[in-house]
């Protein structure tokens, strides 16, 4: 089999192109800084330091646990006693929490019945909305809105100098209670 050998000029150009490629690759790697691609952002350095400290701490703990299991002392010395972390058995006492005694809830009343009831309560002594809330068994929001309405209608006055407000009955409120002496009538649903 005959192989055709090309001209010497073609071989020389091929070898020179190959060498130029090697030189270009060498210069490219030298000019390009090797640390630029591997450079770590400053925010990650703190995280790396933190995890490095954690790993060192875990390694120290692991080594100390390994050392606790082995005895490096002479046989003449007393052996190390390991404390037991088992809980001693004790009688379990059951604590029963009794429910606090609550005032019986006032049945549903109409606005007029609630008005008379609250005015009668305030006739005895000044009260806060919390006192009325406990007595009526209604929510804080309900009592606050109700007392605001009574204040705006002039049935009660409130002491703005202290918080929570203390409500007292006015003359208009006394007249309302006096005109409605028949007692409280509860709303009945069918």
Structure description:
By secondary structure, this protein is mainly alpha-helical. It has a domain at 111-179: Arc Repressor Mutant, subunit A, CATH 1.10.10.10. Helix content is 51%, strand content 5%. It contains 6 helices and 3 strands; from the N terminus they run αααβααββα. A 3-stranded antiparallel β-sheet has the order 1-3-2. Strand 2 (156-159) and strand 3 form a beta hairpin. Helix 4 (129-136) crosses helix 5. Residues 182-190 have low confidence and may be disordered.
List the helices and strands and how they pair.
Layout: H1 8-31, H2 42-69, H3 111-124, E1 127-128, H4 129-136, H5 140-153, E2 156-159, E3 166-169, H6 171-179
Antiparallel strand pairs: 1-3, 2-3
Helix pairs in contact: 3-6, 4-5
Short description:
Keywords: Membrane, Transmembrane, Transmembrane helix. By secondary structure, the chain is mainly α.
CATH secondary-structure class of the domain at 111-179: Mainly Alpha
Helicity range:
40-55%
Which class best fits the helix and strand makeup? mainly alpha
* Euclidean distance between termini CA atoms: 118 Å
Order of helix and strand elements from N to C terminus = HHHEHHEEH
Total helices: the number is: 6
Strand order of the largest sheet: 1-3-2
Shape: elongated
Keywords: Membrane, Transmembrane, Transmembrane helix
Protein name: MarR family transcriptional regulator
Organism: Marine Group I thaumarchaeote
Domain HTH marR-type: 113-173
């Amino acid at each position: 089999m005959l192989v055709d050998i090309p001209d010497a000029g073609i071989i020389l150009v091929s070898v020179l192109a190959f060498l130029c490629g090697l030189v270009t690759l060498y210069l490219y790697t030298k000019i390009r800084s090797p640390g630029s691609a591997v450079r770590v952002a400053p925010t990650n350095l703190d995280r790396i330091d933190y995890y490095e400290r954690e790993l060192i701490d875990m390694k120290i703990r692991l080594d100390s646990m390994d050392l606790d299991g082995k005895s490096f002392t002479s046989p003449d010395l007393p052996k190390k006693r390991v404390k037991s972390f088992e809980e001693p058995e004790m009688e379990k006492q059951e604590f029963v929490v009794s429910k606090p005694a609550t005032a019986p809830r006032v049945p549903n009343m109409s606005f007029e019945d609630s008005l008379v009831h609250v005015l009668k309560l305030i006739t005895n002594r000044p009260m806060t909305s919390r006192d009325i809330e406990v007595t009526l068994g209604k929510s804080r929001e309900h009592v606050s809105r109700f007392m605001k309405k009574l204040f705006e209608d002039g049935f009660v006055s409130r002491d703005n100098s202290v918080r929570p407000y203390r409500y007292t009955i006015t003359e208009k409120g006394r007249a309302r209670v006096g005109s409605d002496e028949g007692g409280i009538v509860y709303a009945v649903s069918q």
